[in-house]
C-alpha cells in the first residue's frame, strides 16, 4: 500500500461521519478563511482551484462572491467529495487526487490555474512542503497562491497552545510552525509573497504571485 493510499484511507475513516457536521463545527476555529476569499480579487473567467477542498464550503462562498469564475476542487478523500458534490452540483468540477502530485490536464482538462487555494489543509498533509511546491507548479504565469492555516499561536497563552495541539491531534492535524519561512523560500526568485499572522498568530495567511504574465482570455 502506498503512502498516498494510506492517507486517503485515513482521511476517509476520519471524516466518514465528521463530514456531516464539519462545516457547523469548524467555523468556530478555522479562522481566516473568509479573509482569504475576500482578498482573492478573482476576475471573470479566471480558473480557481482549491486543493483539499473538503466539503466544498470555501468553493461555495467563492462561487457566490465571484460568480463568473471557473471553479475546481481536489481532495484525497472520497467521503469529503461526496459532501462537496451534493453541495456544489455541476457548477464546480471536482476530482479525487493527491495534493502533492496531480495531473490537472487529466483531472480537469486544464493546463494551469489563475488561483490555487490551500485552506487549513497543509496541517493535515504529511508531505505539506511537497503540496506547496505542487500548488506553485500548477499556477499559470501571474497566478496567485492563497494559503491560510494554523500558525504557532505564539501570541496566545501557553495553556491555550497546549490545549489546541491536543485537540487538533485527535483529527490528525499538526500546525506547521515553519510555514512562513518555507513559503518565503518557495517564492525566492519566483514571484512576490506576503505573509501575515492573524489573531495573535493563531492563524497565518500567505499570498504568493508567480512571476510572469498570462495572455488575456478571449
From TrEMBL:
InterPro entries: Methyltransf_25, SAM-dependent_MTases_sf
Superkingdom: Bacteria
Domain Methyltransferase: 48-143
Gene Ontology terms for molecular function: methyltransferase activity
Segments traversing the membrane: none
Keywords, comma-separated and alphabetical: Methyltransferase, Transferase
Keyword Transferase attached: yes
GO biological process, one term: methylation
Keyword check for Zinc-finger: no
Name this polypeptide is given: Methyltransferase domain-containing protein
Species of the source: Tritonibacter litoralis
Amino acid at each position: 500500500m502506498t503512502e498516498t493510499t494510506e492517507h486517503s484511507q485515513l482521511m476517509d475513516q476520519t471524516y466518514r461521519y465528521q463530514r456531516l457536521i464539519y462545516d457547523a463545527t469548524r467555523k468556530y476555529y478555522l479562522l481566516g478563511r473568509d479573509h482569504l476569499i475576500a482578498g482573492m480579487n478573482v476576475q471573470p473567467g479566471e480558473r480557481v482551484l482549491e486543493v483539499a477542498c473538503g466539503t466544498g464550503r470555501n468553493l461555495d462562498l467563492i462561487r457566490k462572491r465571484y460568480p463568473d469564475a471557473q471553479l475546481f476542487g481536489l481532495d484525497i478523500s472520497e467521503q469529503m467529495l461526496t459532501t462537496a458534490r451534493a453541495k456544489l452540483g455541476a457548477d464546480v468540477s471536482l476530482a479525487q487526487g493527491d495534493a502533492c502530485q496531480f495531473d490537472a490536464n487529466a483531472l480537469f482538462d486544464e493546463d494551469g490555474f489563475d488561483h490555487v487555494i490551500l485552506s487549513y489543509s497543509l496541517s493535515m498533509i504529511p508531505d505539506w512542503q511537497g503540496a506547496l511546491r505542487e500548488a506553485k507548479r500548477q499556477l499559470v504565469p501571474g497566478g496567485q497562491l492563497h494559503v491560510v492555516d494554523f500558525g504557532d499561536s505564539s501570541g496566545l497563552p501557553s495553556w491555550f497552545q497546549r490545549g489546541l495541539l491536543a485537540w487538533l491531534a485527535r483529527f490528525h492535524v499538526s500546525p506547521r510552525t515553519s510555514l512562513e519561512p518555507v513559503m518565503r523560500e518557495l517564492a525566492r526568485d519566483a514571484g512576490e509573497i506576503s505573509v501575515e499572522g492573524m489573531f495573535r498568530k493563531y492563524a497565518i495567511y500567505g499570498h504568493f504571485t508567480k512571476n510572469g504574465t498570462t495572455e488575456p482570455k478571449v
